[in-house]
Amino acid sequence: MRTLNHTLTILLLIVTFAGIGQTHQKIDMKIDSLGNAKINVSMTMTATQWQVWLQTIGNNPAIMKREIERSMPAYFLGDYKLEKNDMERSFNVSLMAYGVCEVDKRGNWTIDTDQKDANLTEITDHKYMLVSTPPELGGNIQQTFTIDFPEAAKNIKVDKDTFGKTIFKFDMENSTAGFNLMLWAGVLLLLIGGSWLVKNVIRK
Q1: Element (H or E) spanning 93, and its range?
Q2: How far is Cα 84 from Cα 94, in angstroms, rounded to an integer?
Q3: Measured distance CA(68)–CA(14) in Å, rounded
Q4: Which carries the bigger pLDDT value, residue 16 or residue 111?
Q5: Rounded to whole angstroms, how far apart are CA atoms 129 and 122?
Q6: 3-state helix, strand, coil in the chain (%, to 5)
Q7: Which candidate, 146, 148, 151, places its Cα nearest to that of 175?
Q8: DSSP run (H or E) holding 191
Q9: What whole-number distance in Å separates Cα of residue 98 and Cα of residue 102?
Q10: Span 50-63, average pLDDT
């Protein structure tokens, strides 16, 4: 979730100073079996917030993309898409964040929330909701996260890291393992074939 916090700070910090009262933001994170995440951020604003957002970021998607990449150097990002609804004064930003999940030394997959005692609600066995009001955004924006785990994720549980922050820990087979095995097998066959060809050339 640290990934999302950085993204949202860039997208919304200027809006926080322009608005009065609390606004709501929805963030959906759908994780795939490789540990990557499809992220959708949507929000409806007041008239003042909308004008400020359009002037700073909304009409400059290239600036938004560049700032998101600067704030998240540990991840490879792609598939950016920005949709705006002027009538509703709302927007939706979608992107792919690769390598969101981490694997510890014991083979456990983890996702951090970057929060202590996070307010989590289990919706289904593979879907959770987290409600947060980040102090870095002035307390004016309430964020509702949904985290959707893939079917391959097993034994999903809420735990804490060494700093006492809430994390998700789960098991998931690495679906790339089979591909890697086939790749190395192919390389081995190529080496064997190459050696056989060289020997035949030398004999002739």
Answers
A1: strand 90-98
A2: 12
A3: 14
A4: 111
A5: 6
A6: 35, 35, 30
A7: 151
A8: helix 177-203
A9: 11
A10: 83
Q: Which long-range contacts does 150-156 make (Cβ < 8 Å, 24+ apart)?
A: 150/31, 150/32, 150/33, 150/126, 151/33, 151/126, 152/33, 153/31, 153/109, 153/126, 156/125, 156/126
Spatial CA neighbour of 4 closest among 89, 82, 100? 100
Locate 88 and state its tokens. Answer: 């509703």
Residue 118 one-letter amino acid: A
User: Per-residue pLDDT tens for 16-36?
Assistant: 445 555 678 888 999 999 999
Cβ proximity of 143 and 134 under 8 Å: yes
What six digits make up the tokens of 165?
């922050």
Integer Cα distance of 134 and 153 in angstroms: 28
Unique residue bearing structure tokens 């994780």: 31
The DSSP secondary-structure symbol of 116 reads: S
**CA 196, CA 4: separation in Å to the nearest integer?**
53
The three-class DSSP label of residue 75 is coil
Supply the pTM of this predicted model.
0.74
CA–CA dist 20, 119 (Å, integer): 25
